[in-house]
Amino acid sequence: METKAFQRIYTQLMGITKATVTLKAQGVANEELAMVHGRLAQVVKIFGDMVTLQVFSGTEGIPTNAEVVFYGEPPKLKVGDDLAGRFFDAYGRPLFGATEIEGEPREIGGPSVNPLRREQPSELIATGIAGIDLNNTLVTGQKIPFFADPDQPFNQVMAMVALRAQADKIILGGMGLSNDDFLFFKNVFENAGALDRIISFVNTTEQPPVERLLVPDMALTAAEYFAVQKNEKVLVLLTDMTLYADALSIVSNRMDQIPSKDSMPGSLYSDLAKIYEKAVQFPDGGSITIIAVTTLSGGDITHAIPDNTGYITEGQLFLRTDSDTGKVIVDPFRSLSRLKQLVIGKKTREDHPQVMNAAVRLYADAANAKTKLENGFDLTEYDERALKFAHDYSMKLLAIDINIEVDTMLDTAWQLFAKYFSQTEVAIKNELVQKYWPN
What we know:
Elements: E1 2-4, E2 7-10, E3 13-16, E4 20-24, E5 33-36, E6 39-47, E7 50-55, E8 68-70, E9 76-79, E10 87-88, E11 104-107, E12 124-125, H1 130-133, E13 138-139, E14 143-148, H2 154-164, E15 169-177, H3 179-191, E16 198-204, H4 215-229, E17 233-239, H5 241-254, H6 268-276, E18 280-281, E19 287-295, H7 304-312, E20 315-321, E21 328-330, E22 336-337, H8 352-374, H9 381-398, H10 406-420, H11 423-426, H12 430-436
Parallel strand pairs: 10-16, 14-19, 14-20, 15-16, 15-17, 17-19
Antiparallel strand pairs: 1-2, 2-8, 3-4, 4-7, 5-6, 5-8, 6-7, 9-11, 12-13, 18-19, 20-21, 20-22
Helix pairs in contact: 2-3, 6-7, 8-9, 8-10, 9-10
């Protein structure tokens, strides 16, 4: 070992796996960065004086006498107003040849907020998507996943939410994005003229999977700056958390840790919770809301990734293609926002809770009618009306390509009620019917 300009340099590796190297070293901290044979690495395990480093780009070609230089600090992100409108890689370096940003370096991946500093969430985050705003309203400081099959257009939905959501800053954390998806996000943001409030951290499929592990921490460190320092409403969009978890399993398997359920590491729950628990409403008005995509393998909701996610988050949003209209909708039966009752009818119009419940109940009647039809039973006249209502409800409200205000959603629902049902069939409080039923 020799020391050069305060950096400790080692030249003897004790062990090499596909993703990690192990050596004897002193005075090293967990999560500290290092350079191994010219490749960036991070300390993932310390046992006595044995230190294991995860090499982001893999260990192929690294000799046992490789030079290891410890940086003496964990990964950092420079935070400042300069972040807005920029694209960064997983290490927080500007993309597209952009200049370095000015700002204060902050360690990424710090602890989540002390519960004593948290407020009960009470502000609405409108997305312009009725399947969310009408049926599964989001609240500032909430954490909620989109569960979607891999063939669903979830990245398009994320881009729509980014453009429509009523938030001060939108931070995108892209993990394992295809180049097409990356360019899609870039073009959509630039063409909409919305770059001044969007910040993106991106790892693409061409880059090492292990780099994905840095992306959520980078995104949330930027979010904390704007929420705490600037008291802003920040919405963090993470896609795809399944690819993040896959990267976790790559590292743990290569470190010879015994895998847990579905070949995931035993630490999966705490690894995911560390990210999601950064969602918070601050007393001074700043907030961090997290919407994350979790792709399902063959629709399997019991897989370890969605299973653990469901325990940590406050509901879930389900995307599915509606067989009657061919539209991608937010499924009203399988989706749930556990915090919506904090804002519906309080921060939205008084008729919101009743309209939401009536619409979903009538949609359920249509689902029953469809089952009768498929099984060869005759339909009643009411069943016929319910099916027509469901078709229009899907086209005009549930489809993700509809972009309207919450009041317009409520008015649209009332119009559909009046078109297909009597006031008694809709079963909403009389004073609300008198006030909102279309003439």
